[in-house]
Amino acid sequence: MARSLTFAFPGDINTLTGGYLYDKRVMAELANLGWQVDALSLDDRFPWVCDSTKERTARRLSQVDTNHYLVVDGLALGVMGHYAELIKRNRPFTALVHHPLALESGLDRQTAKAWQQSEQAALAQASHIIVTSNLTRLTLIDQFGVAASKVTVIMPGVDIPLRTPHRATDVPSSTNTNTVELLSVGSLVPRKGFDILVQALAQIKQLDWHLSVIGDDQRAPDTASQIRNLIADCGLVGRIDLLGAQPNDVLTEHYQAADVFVLASRYEGYGMAYAEAMTWGLPVIGTQAGAARDTLAWPGAIAVAVEDQQALANALERVVSEPALRQQMRQAALEHAQRLLTWGQVGEQFASALISQISNRSASHRQADS
Q1: For labelling, which of 10, 91, 149, 343 has a CA lying 20 to 30 Å from the CA of 227?
Q2: Residue 37 near residue 27 (C-beta atoms within 8 A)
Q3: Which of 173, 155, 97 is nearest to 129 (CA)?
Q4: Any residues with CB less than 8 A from the CB of 353 and at least 6 apart, and which?
Q5: Distance (Å, rounded) from C-alpha 228 to C-alpha 247?
Q6: DSSP state of 186
Q7: Which parts of the chain fold into alpha helices (H)?
Q8: Angle separating helix axes 272-279 and 323-337, nearest 10 degrees
Q9: Using an 8 Å Cβ cutoff, are 250 and 213 in contact?
């Protein structure tokens, strides 16, 4: 008999962020393993919802068939707070935490504090918690009072087999005068640090480069507007293109055409865009932001301190100026990508984590009854 799962998340599963991609791929891989997977779309305004929406959502989740495993994405669960108890009363559930909501950049202190308290209360009701990095696991244990035995780390996967970097056969040459194509992928929100990136690039205007930014520019309109104004103020109109969210085929074209991947995040729960860039054989420049310091701990990457604009400018100048270095970093990226989990392996780990938690709970109940 096939195992059944209800996977709950806010809004549209096709939203182009790392968190939604992770959810979507896990559901697809579980289906490939023979699971019956029901996608449950919750209010798309999460986490910015009122108490009545939180309560209504919790009651809706509590009514999910108890013959189904239930996974709730932390983007919704994290702000439910004590309402999550309504779910637990009727059935066990697993929380999926990409990174704690309170660590999102740009939050005022009051909101960050409220979200931390809310997420701690909600996670206390979960039977099991899956996180996407070791850092997030330690953060939940140290700052959210979560028991270590309750948390399983399942990192994101990558796709590799059919990928051929467009410029993988470039011959390094000090006379190479082609424009160096930079690529950055991420929503235009404060946490992704595009303001830092623009200012760093303004310091190396004398070099021949062009940056394409692919990512949702509607999630934080004020931030997107600020970035556009900053590009104009720095005299970089035409050298930095903000392309908004794009379908996968367009994104693929940009990965194939790119020479270097760069992202100046202020915090990452893993950094899926960095790992994605590796599989395309791209030299990666990033930051030591949260779990990204681990994601970028390999020879083909340069990781600078968070918000260190000068260090980022220096790294960009070096990589843009030195074709031989790009070639070395490219080869290191391809070699490292081979050691990353595939999405198939992620699906297997996810299935095992869900099954083992149910088995462990059943064993505990039997011991309690004996």
Answers
A1: 10
A2: yes
A3: 97
A4: 94, 128, 130, 152, 154
A5: 22
A6: S
A7: 18-32, 51-62, 74-77, 84-90, 109-125, 134-143, 194-202, 221-233, 248-257, 272-279, 292-295, 309-321, 323-337, 343-369
A8: 100
A9: no
pLDDT above 90: percentage of residues in the chain: 87
Q: What is the CATH number of domain 4-157+342-369?
A: 3.40.50.2000
- Joined together, the tokens standing for residue 368 give 């309690």
Residues in the chain: 370
**Residue 171: pLDDT band with limits 50, 70, 90:** very low
pLDDT confidence bin for 2, thresholds 50/70/90 = confident
Question: What is the H or E stretch that residue 360 is in?
Answer: helix 343-369
pTM over 0.90: no
CATH for 180-337 is: 3.40.50.2000
Instruction: Find out whether 180 and 208 touch, Cβ atoms under 8 Å.
Output: yes
Residue 322: both structure tokens together: 């030195």
pLDDT band for position 164 (cuts 50, 70, 90) = low
Q: For the chain, what is the mean pLDDT?
A: 92
pLDDT of residue 359: 57
Which DSSP helix (H) or strand (E) runs through 332? helix 323-337
CB of 198 closer than 8 Å to CB of 240: yes
Quote the pLDDT of residue 300. Answer: 79
Q: HSE (CB half, 13 Å, CA atoms) of 96? A: 26
CA-only gyration radius of the chain, Å: 22
Helix (H, G, I), strand (E, B) or coil at 95: strand
Q: Mean per-residue pLDDT for 193-205?
A: 98
pLDDT at 365: 46
Whole-number Å distance between alpha carbons of 355 and 351: 6
pLDDT-derived band of residue 357, with 50, 70 and 90 as boundaries? confident
Secondary structure (3-state) at 31: helix
| Domain 4-157+342-369 shares a fold with domain 180-337 | yes
| Domains of the chain by residue range | 4-157+342-369, 180-337
